[in-house]
Amino acid sequence: MRLGEALQINNTPAAEAGRTRRLHLVCGFTPLHLETFAGARARLRLPDGDVHVATGLFGDLEGNLQRASKAGGDGAIVALEWSDLDERLGFRAAAGWGAQVLDDVLEHIGGKCARLEAALAALGSVMPVAVVAVTLPLPPLTHYPPAQTSLFELDLRSAVTGFLSRVGGLGGVRLVSESQLSARSPHAARHDAKLDLHAGFPYSVAHADAVADLCVECLCPAAPKKGLITDLDETLWKGILGDAGPGGVSWSLEDHAQPHALYQQLLASLAEAGVLIAAASKNDPELVRQAFERRDMLLGRPQVFPMEAGWGAKSAAVGRILRAWNVGAESVVFVDDSPMELAEVSEKYPEIECLRFPADDPAAVVALLHGLRARFGKSEVREEDRLRLRSLESAAALADAQTAEAPADFLARLDARMTLEFSDSPDDGRAFELVNKTNQFNLNGRRYEAGEWTSYFRQPGAFLITAAYQDRFGPLGKIAVLAGRADAGGVRVDTWVMSCRAFSRHIEFQLLRQLFGRFGASAIRFSYRPTNRNGPLREFFSRFFPEGLPEKDGLDLTAAGFERDCPPLFHEVSIHGQRQRQAC
Amino acid sequence: MDNVRDKLAKCFSLAFPNLDPSRIPRFTAADVKEWDSVAQVTLLSLVGEEFGIDIDFEAFDGATSFEALAGRLKEMGIG
């Protein structure tokens, strides 16, 4: 992005209805073009409102971190350069580069890092923080020839690496990837010596844009895709299963089929991280079963669900997979070597991203693998991610079993156990994730940014309830989240979501029963709002409001009305969390 | 020359979006309170980008009006 384009974006009036996000740009140098690009990149990524970028004082990174923590906001970009660790490492200082000076730099850098770490921990506790560190070259400080690394630089980088390693583990802090930055901003073109000396701004325009873009991406990452559907022949392996047989298909280096091994490896890794993997292949199911029994397969059969092998149209198989997963087509990637199959699926499901597996071009395969990693990338893998596939299989088994007997009898024999956690803290990452990705059982479709979520729990009486569930079909993990406020005015639920994997188990009824019980409330106000996708939530409330639900905001459910229409519940309930608030 | 003045006016309107574009040719730093040292660097960076030139900031010292900037560009053989 050019500087003029960035200013044009910043100068365009924001959508009036949207809210203004407060972003801190924390650095020790003059923020200048980095401020401009940070604002523009943030506005592009968050087009529904305005962005205000707050900056600090020149030469006072530590103080700027502390001031940002106190001020609060929706996020912070921290750009840390060598001169912030020690002024003598910058180009604007003239304190000498002698051996004694360099020894002194090394002696003091640990203390500086420790103070910055404490300040970053404080900032990360109040808002999400993206940190980009030491992106610029060092001045020619030592006597070594350029081709040789000096021990001084090694010691310096070692101290910084240790510091960043600790900072990367702090809650709320995300480190910008140096390899991604290098891909977008070559090292030699980063420093603008003229601007550095003239205005105290050390970045070239292109580098400022790259830094801003990656920092904003770290703060507001795109929602990852949820599932990948793969073809088998000439995609997951080399060869045609029907011709070569299960022993004849290959994915080894020796057989010149390594790209398929890399692809299998990636899919197995994605599956471990909770990405849904399914196969759609025009093949004999028995041969596919035998191929997956090979001990050298890198993608295990249990990691693939559903396995759609048959002779029908690929799009029909994809349709069955989407139903089994219960996810929207826009969250799915389909990979096949055949342009014809890709076109057929794309025509039926235009929202699915269809990618060709370029088996004959290793460089293109490597690019595909990087692209897939990026589409499914997430900062954290949780227990629920690991349980997702198993719980989908459980849901399918449960659906089959449920048809065989009366619903109440069936639920009574599920051995269902619910664990409820009550708290007043925003720190549960899984709760935040569920709130921001659940569409169907969702009270009002409200999404939160990290800073907003933190602010929500600063309100008097704010509470959070999460529910984890398991039954004889297996654990589902943490699958429901309810956030509200309880004060003298009553109990109000602002957010309520439940994973679609948890439907049909009456978890939602039990959660409300516990909510009424916890607060001793005679009625609860729900910030209900119909959306295009929250039909299951609407259906749930319709049981209590047979005369119809309000079309606009809010509904009140009484405890008596709830109990009157609540079905029999059979869960064994455990409750954790000491911070109980009695109100109303 | 008109093209140079148009391009320069575009830089001014990006650097000072709240000012009346029709008055840009008469702007001086003394009239525009937003025109501080940081704005000057932004304006000169925009000029460098717009005209594809490497800006020597010192060479533009004192160029604190539309006409002065246009004059410096002319001295550099632009326009």
Under CATH, the homologous superfamily of the largest domain in chain A reads: SGNH hydrolase
Strand content of chain A: 15-25%
Number of domains of chain A: 3
CATH fold call of the largest domain in chain A: Rossmann fold
Q: Kindly state the mean pLDDT of chain B as a whole number? A: 87
Termini of chain A, distance in Å?
55 Å
Give unreliable regions of chain A as ranges: 579-584
Oligomer: heterodimer
Low-confidence stretches of chain B: none
Radius of gyration of chain A: 28 Å
State the secondary-structure class of chain B. Answer: mainly alpha
H/I helix tally of chain A:
22
List keywords for this structure.
heterodimer, A: Rossmann fold, Rossmann fold, 8-stranded mixed β-sheet, 5-stranded parallel β-sheet, disordered C terminus, B: 79 residues, mainly alpha, Non-ribosomal Peptide Synthetase Peptidyl Carrier Protein, Chain A, 0% strand
Q: What are the SSEs and their pairings?
A:
The complex is a heterodimer of chains A (584) and B (79).
Chain A: H1 3-11, E1 20-27, H2 32-45, E2 50-54, H3 61-71, E3 75-80, H4 82-85, H5 99-124, E4 129-133, H6 151-168, E5 173-175, H7 178-184, H8 193-199, H9 205-219, E6 227-230, H10 241-244, H11 258-272, E7 276-282, H12 285-292, E8 307-310, H13 314-325, E9 332-336, H14 339-348, E10 353-356, H15 362-376, H16 383-402, H17 407-412, E11 417-423, H18 429-437, E12 441-442, H19 450-456, E13 462-471, E14 474-487, E15 490-498, H20 507-519, E16 523-526, H21 535-542, E17 555-558, H22 559-565, E18 572-576
Helix pairs in contact in A: 1-2, 2-9, 3-5, 5-6, 11-15, 13-14
Chain B: H1 2-15, H2 37-51, H3 66-75
Helix pairs in contact in B: 1-2
Structure description:
The complex is a heterodimer of chains A (584) and B (79). In chain A, helix 1 packs across helix 2. Chain A has 3 domains: 3-219, 3-Layer(aba) Sandwich (Rossmann fold), CATH 3.40.50; 227-376, Rossmann fold (3-Layer(aba) Sandwich); 401-576, Aminopeptidase, CATH 3.40.630.30. Chain A has 22 helices and 18 strands. Helices cover 42% and strands 18% of the residues of chain A. Residues 579-584 of chain A have low confidence and may be disordered. By secondary structure, chain A is of the alpha/beta class. The longest helix of chain A is centred in the first third of the chain and has 26 residues, at 99-124. With 79 residues, chain B is mainly α. Chain B has a single domain, classed as Non-ribosomal Peptide Synthetase Peptidyl Carrier Protein, Chain A (Orthogonal Bundle), CATH 1.10.1200. In chain B, 49% of the residues lie in helices and 0% in strands. Chain B has 3 helices and no strands. Chain B has helices spanning 2-15, 37-51, 66-75. In chain B, helix 1 packs across helix 2 (37-51). Chain B is globular and about 30 Å long. The chains are: A alpha/beta (584), B mainly alpha (79). Chains A and B meet through helix 1, helix 2 and helix 8 of A and helix 1 and helix 2 of B.
